[in-house]
């Protein structure tokens, strides 16, 4: 049955995406940190992009509209990059987490992960690349992955506002904030990491993570419903990025 085959492919993509996000990407970040001493962060970043493309590329098996689908995803990545640049003067007040969450909700886990990873990588060319870039790619990618896992619906139903805002706030503070703060511990203080130093770094990051979480909530309030409505119309009209 075609529906059974689609279900199998969907489960396969989910498994591959989960292995990529939770095993392979952290593994290469660890290798970059230990084997390459954080000097090959461009290579690690490109490996993360290549790995995240694998489950995403499985969507295009036996499909003809690959270019159109990539354009939609590229547009979301461009919006995220432009949004980060537009608010460069306000530390931690950026729409990138909200845009990543919206992408994951509209198009699923694998699209959310690669959108987050690409937004972090590309926007850092406007700010600064460094050994923290792969960590930021993983953190933002996971926000998109979990958003797709929790809120994505095949019928395009827009999630309720309160659960979405709770996820945006807690996810930004706990998932994104923790991973980015951990990158500071291992990339800035790599030669003298201690529990005391790590805890002080996490404590110092709490105010900034709270600001980032609050900004994500505000941007989701402003952008989530109108953007999801438009993305769902595009998805239904052109049959793109569907299961």
Structure write-up:
With 243 residues, the protein is an all-alpha fold. The protein has one domain (2-238): Arp2/3 complex 21 kDa subunit ARPC3 (Orthogonal Bundle), CATH 1.10.1760. Helix content is 78%, strand content 0%. The protein has 8 helices and no strands. The longest helix has 44 residues, at 195-238. The protein starts with a helix and ends in a 5-residue tail after the last helix. The mean pLDDT is 86.
Rg calc: 18 Å
Give the class from helix and strand content and strand pairing: mainly alpha
Distance between the termini: 15 Å
- The overall pLDDT, averaged over residues, is 86
- The number of helical elements comes to 8
Helices and strands in order:
Blueprint: H1 2-34, H2 41-57, H3 66-86, H4 96-107, H5 109-123, H6 133-151, H7 161-188, H8 195-238
Please give a handful of descriptors for the protein shown:
Arp2/3 complex 21 kDa subunit ARPC3, mainly alpha, 8 helices, globular, 243 residues
Briefly characterize the structure.
The protein contains eight helices and no strands. It has helices at residues 2-34, 41-57, 66-86, 96-107, 109-123, 133-151, 161-188, 195-238.
């Amino acid at each position: 049955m075609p529906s059974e085959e689609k279900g199998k492919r969907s489960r396969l993509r989910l498994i591959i995406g989960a292995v990529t996000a939770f095993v392979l990407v952290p593994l290469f970040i660890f290798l970059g940190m230990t084997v390459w001493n954080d000097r090959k962060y461009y290579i690690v970043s490109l490996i993360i992009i290549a790995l995240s493309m694998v489950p995403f590329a499985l969507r295009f098996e036996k499909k003809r509209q690959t270019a159109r689908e990539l354009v939609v995803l590229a547009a979301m990545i461009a919006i995220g990059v432009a949004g980060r640049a537009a608010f460069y003067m306000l530390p931690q007040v950026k729409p990138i987490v909200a845009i990543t969450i919206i992408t994951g909700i509209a198009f699923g886990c694998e699209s959310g992960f690669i959108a987050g990873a690409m937004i972090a990588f590309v926007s850092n060319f406007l700010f600064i690349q460094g050994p923290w870039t792969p960590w930021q790619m993983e953190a933002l990618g996971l926000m998109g992955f979990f958003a797709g896992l929790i809120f994505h619906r095949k019928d395009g139903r827009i999630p309720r506002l309160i659960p979405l805002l709770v996820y945006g706030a807690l996810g930004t503070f706990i998932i994104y904030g923790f991973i980015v703060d951990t990158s500071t511990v291992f990339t800035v203080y790599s030669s003298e990491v201690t529990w005391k130093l790590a805890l002080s770094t996490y404590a110092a990051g709490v105010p900034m993570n709270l600001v980032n979480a609050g900004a994500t909530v505000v941007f989701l309030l402003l952008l989530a419903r109108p953007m999801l409505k438009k993305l769902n119309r595009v998805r239904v009209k052109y049959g793109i990025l569907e299961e």
